[in-house]
Amino acid sequence: MPERDERAEFIESVGDAIASWHLSRATGRVYGFLLLRTEPETLDTIGAELNLSSGGVSTAVRELVSWGLARTIPQPGSRRLRVEAVGGFEQLLAASHERTRTFIRTLHSGAALTDGARARERLRAVVGLFEGYVDAGDQMLRRHHVEDGDSRR
Amino acid sequence: MPERDERAEFIESVGDAIASWHLSRATGRVYGFLLLRTEPETLDTIGAELNLSSGGVSTAVRELVSWGLARTIPQPGSRRLRVEAVGGFEQLLAASHERTRTFIRTLHSGAALTDGARARERLRAVVGLFEGYVDAGDQMLRRHHVEDGDSRR
Fold it and tell me: Which InterPro entries match (chains A, B) (predicted)?
């Protein structure tokens, strides 16, 4: 079944990508799986499809929900939850910006520790690059947020 | 010596930040050390200050040079090199963009694997967010590059 192979490959790639944003690979694989599904899935199905323990699935789902990448849907008359992917990376990108802003503050604090004007100027240039970079990303996220809000009306 | 402590803290923070861009912490610490220095430093001084083996320093310097974050300066009449920091993160940021573009291609390829229109639309929204994000960053880097070029004239 070639499509099954392609699906597995897609799921692994999303796992790798999400791992580079400081979440676990298992969390990324669950997200990749859910992204392909229109209907919410039970934790049991997710575990069976991805070969994960029920504890592993719970942890991954909790992580996705806390980052706004999935939501749980209660089943009427059952204690079993179903889960679906949410297409919003805004929180993860905002967290990545926050890390960069921490780095910018560190670089700022270094100005007092440099041993001369040339080192100070070089540091200022690095700070300028990162500030411009984070500002451009923030503007884009804000714009996206506004458009998103508009489309929901 | 409080300043020495602050310097050590700065160096560790730069090490942590650089590690999140897929380089080694040692490489980041060497960069943090060099950022504070106006004059180029020998590999021996770097190793002694940061408590790194000469092999460790060589590897870190090679990594920095290959990413455009440092340059080596030959000493006339000596085989010893000196190294100084270069204030350009453009290559690292561009590599980070390239990873994001790979992720976007993966997401695109997933459209054919979704099981319904709603999943396909959600995937398209995620792709749109990342494309906007990477484009904003690219524009900023290009603008920075132009300004940089201008200021050198």
Answer: HTH-GbsR_regulator, WH-like_DNA-bd_sf, WH_DNA-bd_sf
